[in-house]
Amino acid sequence: MILPSPKRALGAFALLLAVATITAACSGSHTNSANAISKHGKISRAGNFNAATVRFFAADSPWNTRIDSAQVDPRSATMMQLAHERIGVLERPGNLPPLVERRVDNSGLYINTTSWTTPVVTGGVETKLVCRQTSCGDKIPNNELQVPADISPDPRYDGWFTIIDTDGKYAYDLWRGRRESNDSISYQFARRWALDGPGFSAPQIVGARGSGLPLFGGLIRPSELIAGRIDHALAISVPGPAEKYFVPPASSTDGNGELGSLPEGARIRLKDNVTLRQGRDPMTGALIPLTAQQRRTADAIVAALRMYGAIVVDRAAVPTLYAQRDVSDTLIGNELQGLTLDDFEVVTMPKEQVYPAPAAAAGLSSSTNSATAGTSGGAQ
Question: Nearest 10 degrees: CA dihedral of 129, 133, 137, 138?
C-alpha cells in the first residue's frame, strides 16, 4: 500500500512547477466531446453549476479573506531569506554517499501555464473511478463521476486530476490518476472538498499536494484575467519551504528547507512599497517586454498579491504561481519575472505544527483513515 507522501522524491533540483487547467464538457454528452470543450477555458454549464465563474470555498475561507491590513510576522525577513535556499541530493558514483547540495535561488516569480498541469473537469461521460490500492482516502460515490471523455490525468505530473461534481457541491482531487484502456480512470488516492467549505483539512490529513491543500485552490483563472480582477489568495510554491513544520491552512508538508524557513501554509503578501519591475529573461538576461494586455494581466495579479496574498502550497525549483493551462492567450508566464521573494513579507502565522505528529510517526496517522479524512475540510 502506498499513500501520497508529502516527502515525494524529486530529482536533483527538478523543476516542480505546478499549474492547473479547468476544462469541461456539456453534462451528459457522450459524443463529440471535443466540440463541447472550450479551447480557451470558457466552461459550459454542467447541470445548474457553472464552474467558470464560481468562487471556490466559503467567504471566510483563508482563500477568500484579505490580508492587506494583517500584521507582519516578527520572523518574516528570516523566513523569506531561507525560502530562497534549495536543497538537492546528488548521487555519486560507486559506494560514495549522496551529496547534499544547497543553492540560493534568486529567480523572478514565474507563472506556470504548461508543465505540471492539474486538469480540473466538470461534466461529461459517466466514468468509472477505480482505486489501485486498499486505502484510498475519501470515497467517491458509487465510484463514478462525470468526466470529459477526452481529458485524462497525466501520469508524468503525479497524475493530478480534479473532478467537480455536476451539482457543484464537491470536488475530488486524485493522486496518481491515469486513464485505462477501458476508459475508466484509476488512481491511488482521493481527497474530497466541499466547494462551500473552508478549503483546508485538519492537521495531519494528507492530500494530493504535499501541503494537504487542494489542487485547485488559488488558481489564476481565465475569467479573472478577462475581468482584470482576482478576488482570492493565490497558490505559490517556493524553493525551500521548511522541513518538518507547517502552519494551517496546510495540514502536512513536503518541505525540504531549513527548519526556520517559510512553512507550507504560510501566507505571504507583496510589500506596499514594491512596484512591478521589468523582468529579465533568466536564460539570456534580456529585458522582457510586456504588451498592454500582459501589463493589464500583471496588474490584476499584483493587486491580488497585495490584498489576498499567496498561500505556500508546495515546493518548486523557482518561486511559482499556479495558472490554468488554457490561459496562454492572455498569460505567457513571465509577466512577473521582475518580482522576487525579497519583495514579499509573511503575515502573522498560527502556531507551527510538526509533521508527522508523534502518533502519526508511530503508525497511527489519521491520514490513513478515509472515514476520518472525509470529515475534514468541510467534506460533509
Answer: 30
Residues 158 and 329: their CA atoms lie apart, in Å, by: 26
Note the pTM of the prediction, 2 decimals: 0.82
The C-alpha angle with vertex 240 and arms to 239 and 243, in degrees rounded to 5, equals 145
What does the pLDDT average to over 211-219? 95
User: What pLDDT was estimated at residue 363?
Assistant: 52
Report the C-alpha gap between 211 and 1 in whole angstroms.
21
pLDDT classification of 36: cutoffs 50, 70, 90? very low
Strand spans (E) along 220-372: 234-238, 245-246, 267-270, 310-315, 320-322, 344-346, 353-354
Contact 173, 193 (CB under 8 A): yes
Helices then strands, counting H and E runs in the chain, come out as 5, 19
Instruction: Reply yes or no on whether the pLDDT at 157 is more than 60.
Output: yes
- Cα gap 338→305, rounded to integer Å: 14
